[in-house]
Fold this protein.
Amino acid sequence: MNNRYLNNRGVSLIEMIGVIIVIAVIASIAIPNVSKYLDRSSMATFLTYEKSMEDAAKNGVLECLGSSSSKCSIQEKGNFNKIQLKTLIDEGYLSEIKTKDGQICDTEKSFVRVENRGNLNYNFKVCLYCQDYVTDDDLCKEE
């Protein structure tokens, strides 16, 4: 059983090139898919932040309607208020919103628009401004 191939433990250049090509093909398929996954994850995070802002504004409006505070200013039917993210944070309805890089979203520019439709019916629209992200709504693009 003197087979000359059994004692040869080295890897030929052709085999190395073949392995590199296989790795390159796998990487060319995997990298775009991972990138898309990370983008979707980031988008889902911002949508969650928007929902949190909306919920915080709803809590603020409910508390305002339930109190007899003179600083509570809900507009009449057909009109709207803007509640800044800074106000929601300052009044304890929400914590600071940070991006994955640790940057804090713009608390002055981000807001929730509250429209009074009458009969305790309110419409809430959120505009969130964070680093490279802006809520995809015409209302936010007008700002």
User: Anything to note?
Assistant: The mean pLDDT is 81. The helical segments are 13-66, 85-90, 138-141.
